[in-house]
Amino acid sequence: MSTRLSIICIWICFITLLILGIMMVASTGLCAAVPDGEDPADFLRKQSGFAGLGLFGAFCISLVDYHILRKFVKIFWGVLVLLLIMCFLPVVGMNINGENRWVNLGIAFQPSELAKSILMICLAHWYTTHREMAGTFWKGFVFPGVIFGIPLLLILVEKDMGTAAALAVSGFCLMYVAGVRGWLLVLAILLGALVLYDQATGSANRMERIFAWMDPQSFSQGAGRQQWISILAFARGGITGVGLGDGIEKFGNLPFAHTDFIYAEIGEEWGLIGSGGVLMLFTIMTLAGIVLALQIHDTFGRLLAVGLVCTIFWPAMLNMMVVTSLLPNSGLPLPFISYGGTNLVFTIAAIGILTSIQRHTPNKKEIYWPTRRLQDNHKL
């Protein structure tokens, strides 16, 4: 498969998911709870506008040589950390449902969504600059770990455990591909698991979610309501579904049916065929992205492609696993499908960067991975 065929495959899957998402927002948004005086149809209009903005942005990004991103890495990282800190400030920060995920600078958005692409750019730049030392402790693990870990901890403190977990897995994937030693990544995963355990056990609300996940029926009127109703929605949908717009769980039974739990409504209205098709589209997109990365002749482009593909794949997988009760509820949107401007625009922008990588990758081949000899020359 050529790079051109790979990016075409990515775009076909992406556009299909985007169209399905707009259809499902139209189906579920009319039933969502809205403030008095607000038109429920605004969900569809806003989502269509966000999709158009994202597509325009992706087209513009695809025309620009992705190598220019390396010139602004320090600025990107600094602005990202500043935005994440601003989530906690009284004037610009917004506390919604007890979580500090938003900032309002005239336009309200979630910096954690912007963090996905920026951190992948930062890590790809670091390992391209220091690719001969990717297997060492300090420059291959500690320094990039600090670059990656500071924003990640800020996202975790925002009480956005779902995004933090998905982003952490994406970062580990990029680091593994870059040549970081396996035992160091295992150590980092164990430390990350301890942090997540501490965060979970230190919050009564999170512990209740875990207990509800273990027995959603017993908590069907409380913390486990969303996942229990999701199970009922999938059961009602069966193989072929009840039909677009004919789902009933969205009518006040399933909270956030148009955002985090929209996959349950896909299962109800489109059945196993529809929900399985969504899973297949994300899988095909990911495989095409990996194939694209393998054919890139540039270290930065290859690593960045791997990272961006992971920032789409892992949130999608975690969302579907939450909705199907395979994981505790973590509040992650389904990329390209869930209602929400920040996630949609920045995820589509990642597709634009992938397209730029395909269009502007140099023909000259490089040594991608550090050899054992080079690693041994730069031991601790």
Task: Note the topology.
Elements: H1 3-29, H2 42-63, H3 73-86, E1 93-96, E2 99-104, E3 108-109, H4 111-129, H5 138-157, H6 161-178, H7 182-201, H8 204-214, H9 225-237, H10 262-295, H11 299-323, H12 341-360, H13 372-377
Antiparallel strand pairs: 1-2, 2-3
Could you characterize what this model shows?
It is a single chain. Helix content is 66%, strand content 3%. The protein contains 13 helices and 3 strands; from the N terminus they run αααβββαααααααααα. It has helices at residues 3-29, 42-63, 73-86, 111-129, 138-157, 161-178, 182-201, 204-214, 225-237, 262-295, 299-323, 341-360, 372-377, and strands at residues 93-96, 99-104, 108-109. Residues 370-380 have low confidence and may be disordered.
